[in-house]
Design brief:
about 400 residues; alpha+beta; Phosphorylase Kinase, domain 1; Aminoglycoside 3'-phosphotransferase, Chain: A, domain 2; 2 domains; five-stranded antiparallel sheet; three-stranded antiparallel sheet; 10 strands; about 50% helix; about 10% strand
Length: about 400
């Protein structure tokens, strides 16, 4: 029978698996953290914190295996000495149990969730976006088209590519009558609109065939998966590369397409704009977009800084991939489609805000060249000029 982690057995489990806490179990504060996985946050008497996570187990007692991917990325960084410099920018994984799908992380006390920072402050400093772009560009550039890295992460590249394409499509190509039994009437509007827009499905299919797997990618990059040091403003002025960011939750980390990572991060900024829309039957979509509480103009400096930070570390990507900006914008549109899917899956709803998001996603996917200036606030030639110098 599969082992199920609980508040009652977590201390004993950790002690049995080499993480000897040497504390009175009654002195450990245990807090359940609500997420897709079973998460326990342990606060030890000396102030240290551990995050213990277990994937949900299926009826056969096995898990999907996302924690294996997280562990595999950690093993990849440790295996190649030249990549050790990225370890401080990843989570601190202390333990992995593949049989029971359990991982243990050192919980970083001096960091906060970037999504929480953005939400609380409604402030999007360009320095933070630049640092994200710098770190992402360094990871992609350092692992780009290295055969030994590919052999480690994707020994069967054809299988990896097939899985990647399936994941990108999100099952949308298989919409059928079963959706009527799975979703309420309000959510069915999305599927109706999606099937009406032939060009949208065609654009997603074309994007999936254009994927180029060539470096280590996160594949779920968004503010929720980035930690920001609480003293980031002081660290940001340091002359060396700022160390105030960590990218966490590498459960989908793999040998992938760098444009996807950058596009998903841009999608998160666009989602902040779209989530702030004033939606009313009295306004058409264009009016709602103009009346956003967090206007796109407030976010464009960060979107631009993200891209500039990226290409400052990896300018060669624009030569390797002349369509890189176009593909990045399309992946941003795909990121918005993912958010709509999540909204339908978990909230079972698709209202006027979802319709606005779908319209923007459609523009990014179907007319990426025309959307570049809308997303970045500048033309493509201006955006890439600094990388060409």
């Amino acid at each position: 029978m599969a082992f199920l982690l609980s508040s009652q057995n977590v201390i004993e489990y950790l002690n049995q698996h080499g993480l000897n806490l040497d504390v009175d179990p009654g002195s450990v504060e245990i807090e359940k953290k609500f997420a897709k996985n079973f998460n326990l946050l342990l606060t030890l008497p000396d102030g240290r914190k551990l995050l213990v996570k277990q994937e949900p187990l299926k009826l056969d007692g096995k898990a999907v295996g996302e924690f294996f991917q997280e562990w595999r990325v950690q093993q990849f960084i440790q295996h190649f000495p030249e990549l050790h410099r990225f370890a401080p920018s990843l989570p601190e994984l202390l333990h992995f149990n593949p049989d029971n799908a359990i991982v243990v992380f050192n919980y970083l006390l001096d960091y906060c969730d970037l999504a929480d920072f953005y939400t609380r402050q409604n402030w999007f400093p360009a320095e933070i976006a630049t640092a994200i772009g710098n770190l992402l560009g360094q990871i992609h550039a350092s692992t780009y088209n290295r055969a030994e890295y590919q052999n480690f992460l994707a020994p069967d590249l054809a299988e990896q590519l097939a899985n990647h394409r399936i994941h990108l499509a999100q099952g949308l190509e298989r919409i059928g009558p079963e959706v009527f039994s799975e979703f309420p009437v309000e959510a069915l509007k999305f599927f109706s609109l999606y099937q009406r827009y032939d060009s949208l499905g065609q654009a997603i299919a074309e994007l999936s065939t254009a994927v180029q797997l060539c470096c280590l990618t996160h594949n779920d990059l968004r503010p929720n998966n980035i930690l920001l040091h609480q003293d980031w403003e002081t660290l940001a002025i340091a002359p060396e590369q700022p160390g105030f960011l960590r990218i966490i939750d590498w459960e989908r980390g793999a040998w992938g397409d760098p444009a996807l990572d950058l596009g998903l991060m841009i999608a998160s900024y666009l989602q902040t704009w779209l989530n702030s829309l004033v939606v009313s039957s009295a306004f058409d979509i264009q009016a709602s977009l103009r009346l956003a509480m967090t206007p796109l103009e407030q976010l464009q400096p960060s979107i631009n800084a993200l891209f500039q930070g990226y290409v400052s570390q990896f300018p060669e990507i624009l030569h390797h991939r002349p369509d890189f900006v176009k593909r990045t914008v399309q992946f941003a549109g795909l990121g918005l489609i993912r958010q709509i899917n999540a909204m339908i899956q978990y909230q079972k709803s698709f209202g006027n805000m979802g319709i606005c998001m779908l319209q923007v996603a459609k523009s990014l996917l179907c007319r990426p060249e025309a959307s570049i200036a809308t997303v970045f606030g500048v033309s493509e030639s201006t955006l890439t000029a600094s990388a060409s110098n």
